[in-house]
C-alpha cells in the first residue's frame, strides 16, 4: 500500500508488486499490478522464473503451461501432459484418487463448469530441479449455486523435459512427504533423464 498526503489530501493506493531479484541479490525488475490482476501477476512471476533462474536447468517450462487451466484451454492443457501422465490425489479427503491425463483434464473441465470463476495459484516453490518442482498451491472459486471454496495443497510435479509426467497432491501439512515423493518419482526416471 502506498499512502501520503500530497497537497493535504490523504491518498492510499493498494497494488500488487512483483519484484525480480538476480543471483547477486540485485533488483532486476519491479512490476506493478492492480489488486484484481493477481492472475496476471502470478503468470508474469512464473514466466520470469522459467526464462530467468530456471532457464539453465530446464524442466520447468511444461509446468507453466498449466496456465491453460485458467484460460479454459483444454486442448492446450492436455498438450502439456504426457500420454502416460498419472495424477494422484494423496490428500486426506483425496476425492480424485488416481487419474490419467484425459480423465484429469475432464475433471478440471467439470470443475470449471461447476465453478466458472475457479482459478489456481502457486504460492511458494519448496524445491525444484530439472525434473520438476514441489510447490504450495491453491485452487479457489465460487460454486455456480453459491458458496466459495479454497483448497490449499502441496503439488509434486515431475516432467520428462517436455511434458508433465506425474502430478501428485498432498495436504499442506504433509510437505515433507511431498518432498520425499518428488525425489522418489524423479529417481524412477530412465537414467538418461535422471542426471
Short description:
With 195 residues, the protein is α+β, with helices and mostly antiparallel strands. It has helices spanning 38-51, 61-64, 74-79, 101-114, 175-187, 191-194; strands at 2-4, 11-13, 15-21, 27-34, 81-89, 98-99, 119-129, 132-142, 148-159, 164-171. A six-stranded mixed beta sheet has the order 6-5-10-9-8-7. It has a two-stranded antiparallel sheet with strand order 1-2. The chain has a two-stranded antiparallel sheet with strand order 3-4.
Descriptive tags:
alpha+beta; two-stranded antiparallel ribbon; Nuclear Transport Factor 2, Chain: A; 6 helices; about 200 residues; globular; disordered C terminus; about 40% strand; 6-stranded mixed β-sheet; about 30% helix
What is the count of DSSP helices, taking H or I runs of 4+ residues?
6
Number of strands: 10
Spatial arrangement of strands, main beta sheet: 6-5-10-9-8-7
Indicate the multimeric state. single chain
N-to-C order of helices and strands: EEEEHHHEEHEEEEHH
CATH architecture: Roll
Computed Rg:
19 Å
Share of helix among residues?
25-40%
Which structural class should the secondary elements be placed in? Answer: alpha+beta
Largest sheet: 6 strands, mixed
Low-confidence stretches: 191-195
CATH class group? Alpha Beta
CATH topology: Nuclear Transport Factor 2, Chain: A
Integer average pLDDT: 88
Q: Describe the global form.
A: globular
Q: Supply the number of structural domains.
A: 1
Amino acid at each position: 500500500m502506498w499512502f501520503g498526503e500530497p497537497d493535504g489530501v490523504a491518498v492510499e493506493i493498494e497494488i500488487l508488486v512483483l519484484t525480480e531479484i538476480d543471483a547477486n541479490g540485485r533488483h532486476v525488475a519491479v512490476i506493478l499490478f492492480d489488486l484484481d490482476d493477481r492472475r496476471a501477476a502470478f503468470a508474469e512471476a512464473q514466466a520470469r522464473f522459467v526464462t530467468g533462474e530456471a532457464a539453465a536447468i530446464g524442466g520447468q517450462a511444461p509446468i507453466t503451461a498449466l496456465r491453460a487451466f485458467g484460460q479454459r484451454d483444454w486442448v492446450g492443457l492436455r498438450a502439456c501432459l504426457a500420454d502416460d501422465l498419472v495424477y494422484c490425489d494423496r490428500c486426506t479427503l483425496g476425492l480424485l484418487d488416481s487419474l490419467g491425463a484425459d480423465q484429469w483434464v475432464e475433471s478440471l473441465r467439470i470443475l470449471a463448469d461447476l465453478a466458472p470463476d475457479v482459478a489456481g495459484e502457486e504460492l511458494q516453490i519448496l524445491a525444484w530441479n530439472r525434473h520438476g518442482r514441489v510447490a504450495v498451491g491453491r485452487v479457489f472459486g465460487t460454486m455456480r449455486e453459491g458458496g466459495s471454496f479454497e483448497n490449499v495443497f502441496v503439488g509434486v510435479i515431475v516432467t520428462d523435459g517436455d511434458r508433465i509426467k506425474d502430478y501428485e497432491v498432498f495436504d499442506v501439512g504433509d510437505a515433507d512427504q511431498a518432498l520425499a515423493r518428488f525425489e522418489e518419482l524423479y529417481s524412477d526416471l530412465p537414467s538418461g533423464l535422471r542426471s
